[in-house]
Amino acid sequence: MKYKVGLLALAGMLLTASTGFAAIQYYTLQNEKGETVYEEKNAQDFPERPQVTEEEYKRVHISNKVWTDEIGPGEAAAIYVVPHNPDQKIDIRANPLDVNNLADLRSMIKDPSVTIPDELTGSYTFETGSIQMFMQNDITPLTEEERTTIAKQLHEEAVASGKDYATMPVPLADTFWRVTSTYKKGDLGVDLRVVNLGPDGTLTTYWNDETQVTKKKLNINQVEVIQTNWLSSNSVSLDWVAELPDGTRHAYTLATLDQQVTEDELIQIAEAYIRK
């Protein structure tokens, strides 16, 4: 389904590059039906992309600058660049919104299955969060005809304004895509991240085989969890997937933000947070 494919493409950008020596042990997570919901792969298996021309590189460079400079927090927009754009392409981009009030963050999530607690085990209290909503075209993709119409309109607007680009607001859906909440205890920090994979969605991450990490699979409260220890920074992350009765899946990550937060402490946090 298109909704799922779009999510896979986004998840595939979680490419890790580093230097090291030992090959990585890759793991998968499955649901109760035996379906794969999370998988790790070698970066060499990343889907091949068309070679980028110099013209396209220049167009994307301008588009990304417009994204950074013109699109505000919590906003989404279609971006059209006039130069280096013979095929009249548009890019649709969105930004997360920082939310420092926990009640506001919870109200924006609008999903009672996602718990963003006041405090994590070990006296880590909520400090700040961010949320990014799905764009409406993530759920109902634009047709080629619609994209062509938008490109033509934005081209005319850019020419009329004398600028190299034009933008158009894009509606956001009423469904969260990604939520991050940061918890602090003094100078120590832990991140809780949730990605909405949608109905029957899967998450694939790609790794450079030389990345300095060790991995193992745990069972916490009867839930499969992948533990990753980052050797260069002495940090730890835990990844798992929760599936709702309607088939919607949420990918969770608990990660240390400070090397003084131990592996055992992070696992204790997960034991108190994870529900079967």
What does this structure look like?
It comes from Paenibacillus campinasensis. Keywords: Signal. This is DUF4367 domain-containing protein. With 276 residues, the protein is of the alpha+beta class. It has one domain (2-51, 95-138, 172-273). It is 25% helix and 40% strand. The protein is built from 6 helices and 16 strands. It has helices at 2-11, 54-70, 102-109, 136-139, 144-161, 263-273; strands spanning 15-16, 28-30, 36-42, 76-81, 90-94, 97-99, 119-120, 124-135, 165-169, 172-185, 188-199, 203-207, 213-220, 223-230, 235-243, 248-256. The strands form 3 sheets. Strands 6, 7, 8, 10, 11, 13, 14, 15 and 16 form a 9-stranded antiparallel sheet that branches. A 4-stranded mixed sheet has the order 1-12-3-2. Strands 5-4-9 form a 3-stranded antiparallel sheet. The longest helix has 18 residues, at 144-161. Mean pLDDT is 91; it is low at 1-21.
Question: Which features would summarize this protein structure in a list?
Answer:
276 residues, alpha+beta, nine-stranded antiparallel beta sheet, four-stranded mixed beta sheet, disordered N terminus
The gist of it:
Residues 1-22 form the signal peptide. With 276 residues, the chain is α+β, with helices and mostly antiparallel strands.
Structural classification: alpha+beta
Distance between the termini: 27 Å
Series of secondary-structure elements, N-terminal to C-terminal: HEEEHEEEHEEHHEEEEEEEEH
Please state roughly what percent of the residues sit in beta strands, choosing from under 5%, 5-15%, 15-25%, 25-35%, 35-45% or over 45%: 35-45%
Number of domains: 1
